[in-house]
Amino acid sequence: MFAMHPIGFVRCGYRDAAEIPRGLGASHQAEGVLEIESALAAGLTDIEGFSHLFVIWAFDRSKSVELLGTPPTDDRPHGVFATRSPYRPNPIGLTVVELLRRDGNRLHVRGIDMLDATPILDVKPYLSGVAPEKLRRGWLEDAENRARKGGTRG
Ligand SMILES: C[S@@+](CC[C@H](N)C(=O)[O-])C[C@H]1O[C@@H](n2cnc3c(N)ncnc32)[C@H](O)[C@@H]1O
């Protein structure tokens, strides 16, 4: 077992999950603040140089686990580890955000897809070393192709 404590909380306008864009083509442009505990502010030293960050957070309002689920991006079920479902055995969320500016222990970011007051477990610089031509998008690519042909809800 691991004991984890939030390093801070998300501050944003989303109070209800229904407000967060979802489904094929959903774009996450919402701005918000990652408010890091002031006692940990020294850990943000030099973060300003990074354009994007990984935010690791807790789905603190998920009450169930679904090993197989149909995501809003498809009309077919997929395994939880092949999706970004909030209903996970370990309720951990991962979001890439754009760092707009730092104001002390507050990181102003764009790309929020979590609810207000979501606990933040960690923040790391986003560095991708995977060449675009090496990336495979699995079932999502199939769902996008079917939607383009008019067969899938968005
Ligand atoms: C599909 S998940 C993806 C989250 C993250 N980008 C990831 O891949 O882990 C995003 C959804 O999680 C739900 N959600 C957001 N914040 C949450 C929270 N604090 N607790 C439980 N569910 C949350 C909302 O329904 C939101 O649309």
Give an account of the 3D structure.
It is a single chain. The protein has one helix and eight strands, in the order ββββββββα. The protein has one helix spanning 138-148, and strands spanning 8-11, 31-36, 52-58, 68-69, 78-79, 92-103, 106-110, 119-125. A six-stranded antiparallel beta barrel has the order 1-2-7-6-3-8. A two-stranded antiparallel ribbon has the order 4-5. The radius of gyration is 17 Å and the shape is globular. The N and C termini lie far apart (38 Å). The model has no long low-confidence stretch (mean pLDDT 95).
Poorly predicted sequence stretches spanning 5 or more consecutive residues? none
H-E string: EEEEEEEEH
Tertiary shape? globular
| Structure class | mainly beta
* Oligomer state of the chains in this structure: single chain
Task: Tell me briefly what this model is.
With 154 residues, the chain is mainly beta. The chain has one helix at residues 138-148, and strands at residues 8-11, 31-36, 52-58, 68-69, 78-79, 92-103, 106-110, 119-125. It is built from 1 helix and 8 strands, in the order ββββββββα.
Short descriptors:
8 strands; mainly beta; globular; 154 residues; two-stranded antiparallel ribbon; binds S-adenosylmethionine
Task: Please give the structural blueprint.
Blueprint: E1 8-11, E2 31-36, E3 52-58, E4 68-69, E5 78-79, E6 92-103, E7 106-110, E8 119-125, H1 138-148
Antiparallel strand pairs: 1-2, 1-8, 2-7, 3-6, 3-8, 4-5, 6-7
The protein binds S-adenosylmethionine.
